[in-house]
Design a protein that fits this description.
Blueprint lengths: L7 E5 L7 H17 L3 E5 L7 H5 L4 E4 L10 H9 L8 H8 L1 H10 L7 E5 L8 H8 L3 E5 L9 E3 L5 H9 L4 E6 L3 E9 L6 E2 L3 E4 L7 H5 L5 E3 L6 H17 L5 E9 L5 E7 L9 H8 L4 H10 L6 H4 L1
Parallel strand pairs: 1-2, 1-3
Antiparallel strand pairs: 4-7, 5-6, 5-7, 8-9, 8-10, 8-12, 10-11, 12-13
Helix pairs in contact: 1-11
Length: 320
Amino acid sequence: MSTSKLGKVAVLMGGRSAEREVSLMSGQGVLNALRSMGVDAHAFDPAERDVSELQRDGFDRCFIALHGRYGEDGTLQGALELLGIPYTGSGVMASSIAMDKTMTKRVWLAEGLPTPRYELVRREQLSSVSSEKLIAALGLPMIVKPAREGSSIGVTKVVRAEELPAALAQAAQCDADILCEQCIVGDEVTCPVLGAGDAAKALPVIRIVAPEGNYDYQNKYFTDDTQYLVPCGLPADEEAAIEALVVKAYQVLGCRGWGRIDVMIDGQTRQPYLLEINTSPGMTGHSLVPMSARAAGISYEALCEQLLHAASLDHQEVRG
């Protein structure tokens, strides 16, 4: 399909989530890339315009560069299904499950895939939650994070018992569900996946070396101190095993288009553990999917065009 046959394209960016700032950066990069490839692309911010205007203004497909709630969680995907406008990335169900880290873990565990031990704490339980029981179940250090946020927003690495109440309270400001997770100490890696079903393929693994091991919001987007190693430097059999694991994790959730899965490798056993999946990954200058794609010989512009070509609907076959 030539770029002219892609029609009028909306690059959805900004939105109302806590990741708005990052989304605007991602969207601008995608918009510039698509225009440079000759695509009739336009910026569209759902926080400032009603999504029904996409149909009214004659958009033929959407590139979703939104992150977090109301963009990555299935709600926007459902609206686009109703409007009949094909969009990039996963469909309604996969987006909804993947946005919820607890639900994602439940699916992975049901499929026999490795993920760190966890406990779910509800916001209304904060006054009665037992720090001692959480620590007994998960140990220290422990990761505490909102169940439905991204970009490391609201995440705390709890090293001492006295830090746990404040970490829970911080996560509760972002979400009613708080995920407390066993902290795996070792190598942190991430691996993008492109495609759908049996055709899904992993891109090269990236190993992340953050200052003091703290890959937080600041170190993700606004500093140059974090190292991203691709080639990742892991033994070939380890890298191949991680790629196979993330493709399986992507497939069992029913994802399509693209995604990026974060993995921790236990430093002693070398067992990889699935952390979470992003179904609308960042496309900023610091983002990892473009970096991995570049290592595979795919330019940023070509990646954007490839993702746009794959835009689809959950029920397009039914529509005929």
